[in-house]
Amino acid sequence: MMTSLVSQVGEVMSVSRSATHTFSKEVVTTIHLLAGLGVEGDAHMGGTVKHRSRVAQNPDQPNLRQVHLIHSELFDEVGRAGFHVEPGQMGENITTRGIHLLDLPTGSKLYIGESAVIEITGLRNPCAQIDNFQPGLLSAVLDKDADGKLVRKAGVMAIVLVGGEIRAGDPIRVELPPEPFRPLERV
User: What PROSITE patterns does the record point to (predicted)?
Assistant: First the structure.
């Protein structure tokens, strides 16, 4: 299944950032990725963890959540369940189309725009704040697979390997890591 992901090419639909720890992020024209840090001007930028609950556990742990990506196909899916979600509203920095983000293995690299390269570190673990945004949305972004295992659909997290400007319309190309592939886990 994952070998078919090698040739995936997608597109940036929208980019967002927020200087404060807000649930939703403001859609902007461009974002600037900084190698080893994340999105310039975003509250989650830094080499060490910035997510408040993780800072409380250990402020010195590496920041594996520098960039948050959500596939716009999720908005289509939750829309069929009666929810209306637009880019940036679920806190993502990059909204994509055409890339099966949740199927990518850990360590996949995304080449975005002219120069940016990010590495997928894991899954976003959706929390109760999603229900504060729209009641019932948390259940819509969680599922169970055939074996009864929890499926988190609220996007993936990444670190920045090579910085650069990103804007809507930029192409995204996937490069898978060497096998054996490691499935995404929550980070």
Answer: MOSC
How sure is the predictor about 2, in pLDDT bands with cuts at 50, 70 and 90? very low
Q: Domain 2-175, what fold?
A: M1 Pyruvate Kinase; Domain 3 (2.40.33)
Dig out the tokens for 123 from the structure: 């899954």
DSSP the chain: -GGGGTT-EEEEEEEEE-SS--SS-EEESEEEEETTTEETT-TT-SSB--SHHHHHH-TTSB-S-SEEEEEHHHHHHHHHTT----TTTTS-SEEEES--GGGSPTT-EEEETTTEEEEEEEE----THHHHHSTTHHHHTEEE-TTS-EEE-S-EEEEEEE-EEEETT-EEEEEPPSSSP----B-
Cα radius of gyration (the chain): 15
